[in-house]
Design brief:
The complex is a heterodimer of chains A (302) and B (203). Chain A is 34% helix and 14% strand. Chain A is of the alpha+beta class. The longest helix of chain A is centred in the N-terminal third of the chain and has 27 residues, at 4-30. The radius of gyration of chain A is 26 Å and the shape is flat. With 203 residues, chain B is mainly alpha-helical. Chain B contains seven helices and two strands, in the order ααααββααα. The longest helix of chain B is centred in the first third of the chain and has 21 residues, at 25-45. Chain B starts with 24 loop residues before the first helix and ends with a helix. In chain B, 25% of the residues are buried. Classes of the chains: A alpha+beta (302), B mainly alpha (203). Chain A binds chain B through residues 25, 29-30, 33, 37, 39-42, 74-78, 80, 136-137, 140, 143, 154-155, 157, 159, 161, 172, 174-175, 284-287, 289, and chain B through 49, 51-57, 62-63, 65-68, 70-73, 76-77, 80, 95, 162, 165-167.
Chain lengths: 302, 203
């Protein structure tokens, strides 16, 4: 074969180029990813998951949760809001007219193509969000005008998109969210809801256990299969006194008298993992204004 | 069906022949235009491979414009930056210090004090000799140099505000004017103070 060397060279280049694209470039880009500072706080994110949650990730993986659930919140856009915190000596109605006249200035709207400032209907009480749908430059311009008028206001950054509208998260998922996950369970099909922020949304361990045992009993019309192999049915150790772990089941699901349903360690670990999924802190990569102090600690509610 | 391909009947066995011809100009132009549009799109959406630029943000500059930069948040960010550069080496980025060597700032009664007089003195003059923090007597032989004397009023105020509101501390903010006043009071006489000397000052 005269062209053997050329075939080898062509194959090497083809495979080498895809290896560079799929392996080398991501490692160069994200290989040194480390914990990041939480905006407006001295905390770092993400903190290492507790041991039971780390084990729970393997139960999540083994139970095939990623086949129906994603853990990545998408974000389509970002917008700024102006929250008025003090009116100073201005009259609310006059001030509203002033803001409305500012919004008509071409200066504010011409900067961004996709964002249109909207004046909110507001009563004059503070603090209150008075203008939404601004881009960062327009918001800072408007803030200067408001400050010059003797009022005090803040710029709030809001992540927008269909996922955040479903309250699946307050910001998009970023690489830091998966820092402690091995393997990363991104998931690519959403038969169920996204779980990136489930610990913040549904932080009750009892609810989660009941939901795993009998999904339809807590979510009407759910298509999730029950995960009963994560539970054990056995005789109450002391007749009439259920063990502290036993599920509080509705009558139609309850085991016969004298028996109880208790979660196995796997179920408890899986729930600990679910509760540790909290992507609710603002980061440099995904800024937003947290209206309440966020907690990136796993919930201790049991 | 008028535009059905017609086959010539004169040469039924004619096979395809190869002819050398130049690349049509329109294919060349189209390729150049597509490459140009692709490059423009990449420039607008690629984020230049910056690992921190995601989704709705097109570039690091756009991402920067959405970072909190007004009010308390900016002061804390400035304070954290300076703290980690100047103070964190000894007191730790977690504010816990080193037992017996460097006093902790987290939960320290010196940091959380109502007034900021004593606290502001510490970075401006330095500390020598024993000092009691959180009930533990620290006796660090080298003392603390006047680490904050070279910082600007606003930088030092930001650092003090940062340590007073981090790691569970609940002290109020420190303004640049506070620092300015203390600096004026010290004047040119910046001798390291002992803990007992500072306790004699008003809070």
């Amino acid at each position: 074969m005269k062209t053997g060397f050329h075939v080898f060279l062509a194959a090497l280049i083809a495979l080498g180029a895809s290896w560079c694209g799929f392996v080398l470039a991501p490692v160069l880009q994200l290989g040194t990813e480390k914990q990041a500072a939480v905006l407006n706080s001295s905390d770092i994110y993400p903190i290492q998951r507790p041991g039971d949650a780390t084990l729970g990730l393997q139960v999540y993986r083994a139970s095939g949760c990623a086949a129906c659930h994603t853990t990545q919140v998408q974000q389509d856009g970002v917008s700024c809001e102006i929250a008025l915190t003090s009116l100073g000596k201005n009259q609310p109605q006059e001030f509203k007219k002033f803001i409305a006249s500012l919004l008509e200035l071409p200066l504010l709207n011409s900067r961004s193509n996709s964002v249109t400032a909207q004046l909110q209907d507001w009563s004059g009480a503070v603090p209150q969000i008075i203008v939404t749908n601004l881009d960062a430059d327009a918001a800072n311009d408007l803030l200067q005008h408001i400050n010059a008028a003797g009022c005090k206001a803040e710029v709030h950054v809001v992540a927008t998109g269909t996922d955040t509208a479903r309250s699946w998260g307050t910001r998009r998922s970023v690489a830091e969210d998966f820092l402690w996950d091995d393997p990363v369970q991104l998931g690519d099909i959403r038969i169920g809801p996204d779980l990136a922020d489930v610990g913040a949304r549904l932080g009750n361990a009892d609810w989660q256990l009941l939901h795993l045992y009998a999904p339809q009993s807590v979510v009407k019309g759910s298509v999730m299969p029950p995960f009963r192999f994560l539970f054990e049915v056995h005789k109450e150790k002391i007749a009439g006194v259920p063990s502290p772990d036993a599920l509080h089941l509705p009558k139609e699901l309850a085991p016969p008298a004298g028996f109880e349903v208790v979660p196995t360690d796997d179920a408890k670990n899986l729930v600990a993992y679910l509760l540790s999924l909290r992507a609710d802190v603002p980061l440099y990569d995904a800024p937003f204004t947290a209206l309440q102090a966020p907690t990136n600690a796993p919930s201790n509610k049991k | 069906m008028s535009d059905e391909p017609k086959f010539s009947s004169t040469q039924p066995d004619a096979g395809p022949t190869a002819a050398r011809s130049t690349l049509p100009m329109w294919i060349f132009s189209l390729t150049v235009v597509l490459l140009y549009l692709g490059a423009v799109y990449f420039d607008h959406h690629g984020g230049w491979f910056d690992a921190r630029v995601y989704g709705p943000y097109a570039s690091a500059e756009e991402l920067d414009s959405y970072q909190p930069k007004s009010g308390a948040a900016a002061v804390l960010a400035q304070g954290r930056k300076t703290y980690e550069m100047v103070c964190g080496i000894c007191h730790g980025v977690d504010g816990l210090g080193k037992p017996g060597q460097f006093p902790p700032l987290a939960g320290s009664e010196w940091v959380n004090a109502k007034g900021v007089q004593r606290l502001t003195h510490i970075p401006l003059t330095g500390v020598t000799g024993p000092i009691t923090v959180k009930g533990e007597q620290m006796n660090f032989p080298a003392g603390m140099a006047a680490m904050g004397a070279a910082l600007s009023d606003s930088d030092l105020a930001a650092v003090l505000t940062y340590i007073r509101s981090s790691w569970g501390n609940k002290g109020g903010p420190v303004t640049a004017d506070d620092v300015k006043n203390v600096r004026a009071e010290i004047g040119g006489n910046a001798q390291p103070m002992t803990g007992d000397e500072m306790m004699k000052m008003p809070e």
